[in-house]
Write the structure tokens for this entry.
Amino acid sequence: MTAITHWIHRLSPQTLAGRRTLVGYIFISPFILGFLLWFLLPAVTALWLAVNDWNLIRPPRFVGADNFLKMGTDRLFWQSLKVTTVFSIISVPVGLVLSFLLALLMNTKVRGIAFFRTVYYLPSIVPAVASAVLWAWILNTEFGLLNVLLQALGLPKVPWLQDPEWALPALILMSLWGLGGSMIIYLAGLQGIPETYYEAARIDGAGRWAQLRHITIPLMSPIIFFNLIMGIIGSFQIFTAGYLVTNGGPQNATLFYVLYLYRNGFEYLDMGYAAALAWILFFIILALTLFVFKYVGRMVHYEISP
Amino acid sequence: MNTRKLSRRTFLQMTGLAVAGSALVACSPAPGAGSQTGAQAGAAQEVVEISFMGWGNPGEDQGVRNAIAKFEEETPGIKVKWLHTPENYQEKFLANVAAGTPPDTAFIGSGDFRTYARDGLLLDITDKLEADPLLGAEDYFIQPQERDRCTYQGRWYGIGSCWVAPHLYVNVDIFEAEGIEPPSNDPDEAWTWDYFLEVARQLTVDANGNHPGDSGFDVENVERWGVHWPTWWIPLHAAITSNKGDWIDPDTQLLILDQPPAIEAIQAIADLMLVHQVMPQSTVMESLGMSNTQMLDTGKLAMAVDGSWALDWMKEIESTLGTGVLPMMVEPATNMQAHLHSALAATKHPEEAWQWVRFLSTPFYQTQFCRTGLWLPSQTALLTEEGLKTWITEGVHPPEYEKIATEYLPRFGHVLYMPPGYPKVDAIITPALDAVWVGDMTAEEALTQAVPDANAILSEELSRS
């Protein structure tokens, strides 16, 4: 330790402020290193690859914008974009509302609430691969839990993973399994709302609905906004379910964008095209995020701390 | 004295630079690295270690280990490091190649071989092979298939591990009970398609004892199915070549699945389900929740088409197992293929790598897997009366099974070479065929639509060459 402080003394500007700045940088250096090594360098490499034709074996060959122009006529590119967009449009809002409702439910003061919070949170810490395997069984047409339940209710069996019409809804259903994470974030937010607000509202004669509408939702709006952004980013990067449960089928009904990207890189040996796809995905997500910030961000109510 | 010292140092510096330089460009292996016999002569005492990367189930894993033990015993001075990669082999293999650390020798999938050979990834072993007294003999391998599958533009870049081919598996007890003669392993006795349909119809029975075509036949309640013919490329290619069609035109390297012989054959397989009702649809297979082996064993199925490799587990069934050649549309035919063993062009030990690849192509390694039913030989020495005795095994191979290896495969086996860029085409062809199997489209509709799209991709890949 003394050696380090000695070194700082020697290297840093002789002002206290300068020294503090340096110490600060040293403290955040793990992140900076990580950012450079695991994000910036790969991203720049991918940009270089995107303007090359590279099949992992031959030396890369410069092809300019060819990889980007190819997407226009690539049927599977548009299919994967469509599948991913549909997935996102449905799973994000549904997930947002459901996890919010769950958090409200978990915010009540009943006996054993800690147990229920744990139970609802557990699925989201199960590794993605394990839950994919689990859901492949739940969704099995003949022996799956879901169809057994449907039949018990007198409903017909659904060919969840065989029918192109049903496969994507099945994976959307599966994605709701991981709600626990956003539920916990909401819960933390809910518990940060001072009880005095509710008391004052009750004295003024506000009912439950009015309390929710005028106190809870406005105060929670930054957190809802955060979960919305994270949900959009996450949903566009969905991969595991499509890779493990359906492998993009049946008839490309679950060919997610990142799955198609992965196939181009490692199955079709077209790394340049895969890198170009990755950059396009980056811009799609960036555009969506900026759009949401601009138009939805206005509705966010930030509490000014007294 | 001084100058000599100096020059040696300069020489070492130059060498160091050259090595560093080659490490930098290791991503693009120089084709045909020069022989290093000079360097090796001085290091006769040194043990060279080469790596061998491959996939395989636990049985195959053990087989490779046995082979390494025997090879190291016979060839002092060479050690082989086995990099067993049962999952995601291609990704891991290519990641190593791209990182500049390729293995010295490796399994190469038959579908990837041409791409890798074209791109200079594999070591040209033509001269070593032709100079070899044993392997270089004119009739050492089943020809012309071996030369066809191992050469690219006339040069050898690997040696096939074995051959495997689809054929019929039958439950002999059912045939005896119904008084029908089971199919033969002799291709000259192959059933005609019409006779096959009739047998399959007779062997398909619903819960009330009705057969397909009888009034009142209930396809929803079938007790026993006549046949199961898997619809992935290997069994499908067997049917197509039997109708004198093909998957890929060897000259143009483009798909010809949209030509009449292929369309007819594909429709004939779909009709087994859709028209003749002698084969279960995939949804029915799934609802049974049984493999074809279990179905055959329990009498739910009378005949199963599967690869010869399946004998490795089919041999375990309780019922009497029989095998036979596939029924023919125009002429007897089956598909034959297998992965290859190759040395990589980037290896620093081309001679040792060749020694190992060569050893894998001698009888010891192949007979190990032929004995369990997993493989069929590619070496003619294993097809002679003496040779057959070394691997045909009581309790594994049904009576007269050797005819599959000695007659059916060499005379009627067709190798399908996937051209570079094929994997991407799969993403177009598979969904098109899926629509045919469920009856949403005819083979003609689906393939005349999909093949031009797929060929556009293949043409683009050819232009990348």
Observations:
- Chain A has a mean pLDDT of 90.
- Chain A touches chain B at residues 53, 55-59, 75-76, 141-143, 159, 162, 248-252, 263-264, 266-270 (CB under 8 Å).
